[in-house]
Amino acid sequence: MIAFVRGEVAALTLTSAVLEVGGVGLELMCTPGTLATLRVGSTATLPTSMVVREDSLTVFGFLDDDEKQVFELVQTASGVGPKVAQAMVAVLSPDDLRAAVAGEDVKTLTRVPGIGQKGAQRIILELKDRIGAPTGARLAGAPATPAAPWRDQVHQGLVGLGWSAKEAEKAVETVAPDAGPTPDVPSLLRAALRALSKA
């Protein structure tokens, strides 16, 4: 198992980061919030989770160990695969997810693309005794990103999570007034997802 990866960020795509580790470029699938903290040419250390399938080997990269543990835990619920698990940690912080499961908050869980009413109820039923209480570990607000790229990152994140380009554009416009001088991409992405779930 690959527990973490440390290396120079060689490339960033809409959904992944390539880290150079010992002369090898390792592609990590990441949420928009994680990608927003990375810069090409800088060194990064990301906790990772490897998903092995018959036809593929995928490594997922995370902001911190808490996010990784939640990603792995939610996959133990029936019907939750790596893609839905990644969407869950993209839309909700680990603590938001814990609070939603503990409080049996179906509405919050159904904001995640790919999770319907029944799926949310099943996740609550299966994880309630195991997910734990919110830890308050992560402080609100991830590292700030330059003003111009945030629109792209939020738009690409929404499209990556299954929304159409038109819906994503509309949601970006909706959250634009909240961006401020130092946009917090993960928060803006969550706000955009909230706007889309209400639409």
Automatic annotation (TrEMBL):
Entry's Gene Ontology cellular component terms: cytoplasm; Holliday junction helicase complex; Holliday junction resolvase complex
GO MF: ATP binding; four-way junction DNA binding; four-way junction helicase activity
GO biological process: DNA recombination; DNA repair
Pfam families documented for this protein: HHH_5, RuvA_C, RuvA_N
Alphabetized Gene3D superfamilies for the sequence: 5' to 3' exonuclease, C-terminal subdomain (1.10.150.20), DNA helicase RuvA subunit, C-terminal domain (1.10.8.10), Nucleic acid-binding proteins (2.40.50.140)
Annotated NCBIfam families: ruvA
Protein name: Holliday junction branch migration complex subunit RuvA
